[in-house]
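Need tokens for this chain, all 136 residues.
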Amino acid sequence: MTLIAQIIPNKMNEENNENLNENFFDSYKNILLEYLEERVELMQLTVVEKTSILTAKLITGIVIIAFFMISFFFASIVLGLYLGEIYQSNFTGFLIVAAIYIGLSLFAFLFKRKLEKPIINLLIKQLLTGQNSSKN
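Here are the structure tokens for all 136 residues:
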């Protein structure tokens, strides 16, 4: 074989190898970019899902608490009037109800830390749960 016959195929093989390498890296880069775009989209959807679940639970919780507070308010009035009937003085009946609420407020203030921990743990659990929270 002549020297020219040996150089031409080697040169063609080198060009083919370079084209194969470029194609491989281009396709690998495209696959990697697609994967990263999909991961970012998945993370965005996960954040939206968790935010919407937490917001829905927060709104329903506020509505339930509002109804409970209205009921509690009227029950307090009824209790004050009932105690007023017993003690023959509305002032005394409402004073007793107020004293009960002051006692409950002091209790909540003294045990604030112990009352906060379960609430914090519940919120963290709600934020960190995945598919289980969306089924509820």
